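Suppose a classmate hands you a notebook page containing two proteins, each written out with its sequence and a corresponding row of structure tokens. How would you begin to make sense of it? This section walks through that situation. The first entry is reproduced here exactly as it would appear on such a page.
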Amino acid sequence: MTAGHPTPPAETTTPLSEAVFCAFDTETTGLSPLDARPLELAGVRFRGDGAVLDRFTALCDPGCPIPGPIARMTGIGEELVRGRPDPAAIVASFLQFVDPTDILCAHNAAFDVSFVGEILRRANRPMPPNPVLDSLRVAELLGVPKGSRSLRNLSERLGLPAGRFHRALPDAERVRAIVVRAIAYLEGEAAALGDGIPTDPERTPTPAVPPPSAPPTVELVLKLAGAFAFGDVEVAAIPAPEGLEPIEEALAAGASVDLDYGRPGTPPERHRVRPISLYRTGDRRYLVAWCAQSGLDRSYRLDRIQQVALRR
């Protein structure tokens, strides 16, 4: 993902409480939009003061098998999507639901944007003009330290109540709550969050930035939270870079590899994986692979693979 500089969807003097946002989420059959498909798409349109304007939710038939771990995690099995519209149809319906001036919001937003964008590219349709906020960046404004990228962990750190995860509408509602809390804080109304969700004060982090002296505007929140343009997220298949050629061999043979994985300068962890695909989004490159330890598909950043060996 590359950070763009989208034109604010309203005049820069528009108060945040009056701006309209749309929190959205996708559930998918896998991690790469090049070889996985959406299962479910949901959105919640709301004003910055927390008032919900409308909701959208739809299941779709991905046109491919649903892996068992995905079905168990989401509760979405073959019988639930049989006869449903295809992904292109629900993406089209969702974009009719969203106003072109809405500010889109999602958790780990590049993931959801990449799946919706890939459907649009295959249908030869233009990208929507909306700017996009990532709830991970928004949460940083509230003082949530960087760590696990899961929505569950972020919700726990903010003291949001437990509930169903890995379904599109409940997850979109959580993104809405996170954005509304950040807006309330920036507007100096931290005691009256307005999102309708109780807060556990013992688990609510200390905000990372002081409230602005003047009333915050749409332009300010887009800047503070690193908004990007929808079309900035491009996905492309890539070959294995130099030094990681065993991944290509494993892809061709359906074999497994051992990865030594970790941030540069830190002791790596050994992962036994079966590669599925290699792709690039923005300036980051990833391997999607089935992990023997977890039994799930995982994404691995190529710049964190310190060593790889083909298992024979």
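The notebook's second entry, a different protein, reads as follows.
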Amino acid sequence: MLNKLENSESLMMIFAPERVPEFPLLLADLKLDFAAIAPSLPFILTGLWVTLQFTLISLFFGFIWGTILALFKISSFKPLYWFGMAYTSIFRGVPLLVTLSVIYFATPQLTGFNIQPLQAGVLTFSLNAGAYVSEVIRAGILAVDRGQTEAAMSLGVTYKPMMLDIILPQAVKNILPALVNETIALLKDSSLVSTIGAQDLLRRAQIVGAQKYVYFEPLLIVGLVYYAMVMVLTLAAHALERRLHRSS
């Protein structure tokens, strides 16, 4: 009888559900120490300007280069068409970190020019963004009713003003959500410059973590800052999209 009771108790211990610790206890077990990094918050947040600098400059040049590539891809001149397609295939197929490393580390070896992290980052992100933006813009241009082009040509409008004044403004309305997604992706990808020594948000958080011997807290703060920036971009894009739809 005693053996049966012991066996039943053993079975109950095996199959009984484990007690889940309460959430406050879990937080206490994490041993978070935000007070240790509080004096370093200004240093971390200073990297916000560096992150925005990489993102905004790269977005500007990437949009211009992407527009040019998109026009290449819809061109009837075959060398331009094939150049645009090959360029996009290469930059979409090679990891961004590999491209950044090649430009930053190989440029001094091949040319003797000591490229700076800002220059390497902007060049890499602009070239890479141009490949993705070109596909977005090309799709937007092709989505515009062909009758618009035919009507402009019948009125004697030349190619350049037709694109700038008629086709591209309509295409931008169609591709605005996709462009916002590319901007958000570029903002998040800018953290890769920490691998080449640029003191952006991520790099500064890593420096603080190494000094204070705490890594979770500064990285958590950086993650929240990136999330806040993405949410601001998303809400601003929604507001702009509604305004464009009302104006049309």
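A careful reader of the second entry would note: The chain has a mean pLDDT of 83.
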